[in-house]
């Protein structure tokens, strides 16, 4: 042995212990929302480990740990005597030996390996204190579910920090080192419970706990974390964006260095956005009818083989949060019995069958019929009642941000990240439709227009556009109302008004102006179609652009990462965003932003976004958008502290339905988000900037009062006289769609 001892590996891995630590991504309010790395681990110092956890591990793994010198001879003798009379064999490896095995040896059962293990244990005991050895063991041991160490296991299995676990939970965790798979409380709760009960008994026998503590822990009902979303916030698109950003800087160290990234996202905002998107998409899907089962399987005739066959089949249809895949066992117009992936059998009756009634009819087509073996989607409501649903084909995106510094508060890149990882907030280039019109109106203000300018809402034809052919644009509803103010034209989202403004100021100037808001010039060419939002933008660009109106004229850069810290809490990098108020990033006059906001408020008060009045706030402004043939639906809106943009459409652009518009599809998503995001936020009105005057019921630049504004665009005297005759007509009961 003396000859072998000097050849043992050095203790550097232990004396300078730096385990692999995963990348962790948090909300601004420190809620974990993403984790990347081969090993889940939370490094915890021995003085931070609760006593119940230490005692539970010592009771089952090595109760004489603090007495022996690395090898427990009494324990070896006790195990040998036990094994002589029992088929339930005991081992005698100490915690120190387990540390030696985990760091330096394989798990092969040979005499030579056992000798090395003993020698290494002696060497470890000479190099480290008992507490240091125990700390390494508590952090390094594998406990199932990719969790290494008891702090990570507490989060994985119970969703709580190690310091908050109960005696009963500690005993259940202590049962994992021997057989992490067999004693896993998620996949094998019965076996895990049996192991836990034995450990509690050992703790009582060793005097670690009292009889009263034993009885209480033995009977405690443990809630194991089995949620389909392993984190407490639905933010997979955000987590993936952050992962890519961090990898660009840290490369492969990203997944082992223990970086903690704190984002600008808040849990409240993110959950509100996620739920709003899900509700908006599913509401659309219900309006457009049941398409039929996702697939089918042959259920085996052998009853014993049914459960395994169903489990295998459902593994091909991942659950989408609360939208679960299920295999139908029985189906009739009055009742459906099915099995979900957890193995639970459910029964659906009554209203729960209404959506799929066509698929339960005896004369249903083959592709739509629900029968035994059909793969369907089911969802449970707040009253625990099941209903038939389906995976939607429509996609959606939502993003919100603070317009004053660019901090992104929520970001939902699609209906389900697991099903589709394409991030529609940043990657989807879509036509913005009428939601782009405010930027054309803003350009008009710079060229002498004002909200009170009179512009003719009548058909117009243009020759020689981009295609070389004549262009005969139409209003969304094909209705024309003659002369009206620019303000009313935006309220009613009249295409002809926007087109005449751009025609008057010049498409080249219009393009130059809109690029000030952060739009790409190449994707928004200088043609009159620009007035109708025929270019291409992303939802994040739209949020950035609307922030210019919200913050008084400044182009701020959106940002997602607030700061990055290492595993010891040392800040490695910190965001330093430019903020509204810095004149170096001003892109439009404060007066322009103010007047545009008054016009966009009118869109909410009595225009195409009138549904937003349900929020009961006077500080909301925004614009709906629907592209040709209802291919894209938008709503972009704001108040002084928050901008939000919602988009819905198909990945392969196609008509969503003749009655589907920005006001009917996207606006409800925005409203549902803002209802939660602005709860408790006081109403705020931005002050009137210098150089703006209120005259004759409307706002003007001081140097361009009502008598000098550009007006009567495309309007003849006869049309003007007619307008004045009817200008007092009320529109408060009208609901406009766009």
From TrEMBL:
Segments forming domain Penicillin-binding protein transpeptidase: 397-641
Pathway in which this enzyme or protein is active: Glycan biosynthesis; Cell wall biogenesis; peptidoglycan biosynthesis
Residues covered by the Glycosyl transferase family domain: 32-204
GO biological process terms, semicolon-separated: cell wall organization; peptidoglycan biosynthetic process; proteolysis; regulation of cell shape; response to antibiotic
Localization, UniProt: Cell inner membrane
Gene3D superfamilies referenced in this protein's UniProt entry, alphabetically: Biosynthetic peptidoglycan transglycosylase-like, DD-peptidase/beta-lactamase superfamily
InterPro entries on file: Beta-lactam/transpept-like, Glyco_trans_51, Glycosyltr_51/Transpeptidase, Lysozyme-like_dom_sf, PBP_transglycosylase, PCB_OB, PCN-bd_Tpept
Keyword Secreted part of the UniProt annotation: no
Superkingdom of source: Bacteria
Catalytic activity as recorded in UniProt: Preferential cleavage: (Ac)2-L-Lys-D-Ala-|-D-Ala. Also transpeptidation of peptidyl-alanyl moieties that are N-acyl substituents of D-alanine; [GlcNAc-(1->4)-Mur2Ac(oyl-L-Ala-gamma-D-Glu-L-Lys-D-Ala-D-Ala)](n)-di-trans,octa-cis-undecaprenyl diphosphate + beta-D-GlcNAc-(1->4)-Mur2Ac(oyl-L-Ala-gamma-D-Glu-L-Lys-D-Ala-D-Ala)-di-trans,octa-cis-undecaprenyl diphosphate = [GlcNAc-(1->4)-Mur2Ac(oyl-L-Ala-gamma-D-Glu-L-Lys-D-Ala-D-Ala)](n+1)-di-trans,octa-cis-undecaprenyl diphosphate + di-trans,octa-cis-undecaprenyl diphosphate + H(+)
Membrane topology type: Single-pass type II membrane protein
Gene Ontology terms: cellular component: outer membrane-bounded periplasmic space; plasma membrane
UniProt keyword Lipid metabolism, yes or no: no
EC numbers for this chain: 2.4.99.28, 3.4.16.4
Keywords noted in UniProt: Antibiotic resistance, Carboxypeptidase, Cell inner membrane, Cell membrane, Cell shape, Cell wall biogenesis/degradation, Glycosyltransferase, Hydrolase, Membrane, Multifunctional enzyme, Peptidoglycan synthesis, Protease, Signal-anchor, Transferase, Transmembrane, Transmembrane helix
Domain Penicillin-binding protein OB-like: 290-393
GO molecular function, one term: serine-type D-Ala-D-Ala carboxypeptidase activity
Any matching Pfam family: Transgly
Family statement: In the C-terminal section; belongs to the transpeptidase family. In the N-terminal section; belongs to the glycosyltransferase 51 family.
NCBIfam families: PBP_1a_fam (TIGR02074)
Protein name: Penicillin-binding protein 1A
Species this chain originates from: Oxalobacter formigenes OXCC13
